[in-house]
Amino acid sequence: MMRNVTAIFSIIFLTFLSGCSVSDNNSNMVLVKGGAFKNKNSAFYGKDIKIEDFYIGRYEVTQKEWKAIMGYNPSKFKDDNRPVEMVSWYECIEYCNKRSEKEGLKPYYNIDTTKKDPHITNPFDSIRWTVTINPDANGYRLPTVAEWEYAASGGRKSKNYEYSGSDNIDTVAWYWRNAGKKYLTGLWAWSDIENNRCSTQPVGKKLPNELGLYDMSGNVREWCWDMRQPMNPDDLQGRTWKGGGWIGAEFCCVISFTGSLEGSGKGPDQGFRVCRNR
């Protein structure tokens, strides 16, 4: 009798621990209720685009989270609580699938490392894996540009801010002026940024936006899923990024700005955050 009671208690205890683990993971994912764009500063405002419900990371993926899945830390500015950086778009896709598998979720991406994608024309992309999606999978993935901008702009709760969570950039973003020893003034200059020892900062130290999301403006640029095609003969195709970073000027941090870089590109201000289908 005592043995049976002990066994039952052990099962209940293990179930409780398992439930805590799932809860801890999900606590850093925010449900974004879908709809049309309400923020008039968004590049998608007034267009016939509706976002479906989805989950997105409350914070940028940290170095601690990256190491737990990938087993190494590529970042220049080492700190468990700072966002991981120096990661390519392809490495972020790998992270999403490996984290999904570790948590018992269906991977969102099909990655063929043996086949070059003929649709990638950027000559600086040294990887060019063929990556397709499982649209109904519940695993981790990168947000689309539209999803990212909808979440950054406050979704249904938007208050029409220019940056994610405020019209005052210094309250919500780490960028070139405030990411170092002192507050920089004047015009953007790389020499000033270097001398000021500007860098990434631990996630979640600035104010969140209307949805409780942190650092969507500033800290690190965040990879998105979309491919950006050349607009003119001098442009290069690239994978999109949003949000600006600690190196970037103010205009990079506004919610409507979209940049791009070859998928194999890396930088000390290049990171990401994950999302999932509901």
Describe this structure in words.
The structure is a single chain. 25% of the residues lie in helices and 17% in strands. By secondary structure, the chain is α+β, with helices and mostly antiparallel strands. It has a single domain, classed as paralog of FGE (formylglycine-generating enzyme), CATH 3.90.1580. The chain has a four-stranded mixed beta sheet with strand order 9-8-7-10, covered by helices on one side. It has a three-stranded antiparallel beta sheet with strand order 1-4-11, with no helix packed on it. The model is unreliable at 1-25 (pLDDT under 50).
Q: What is the end-to-end distance?
A: 44 Å
Order of helices and strands: HEEEEHHEEHHHEEHEEE
What is the name of the CATH class? Alpha Beta
From the 3D coordinates, which CATH architecture would you assign? Alpha-Beta Complex
Mean pLDDT: 92
Q: Tell me the count of domains.
A: 1
The fourth-level CATH homologous superfamily is paralog of FGE (formylglycine-generating enzyme)
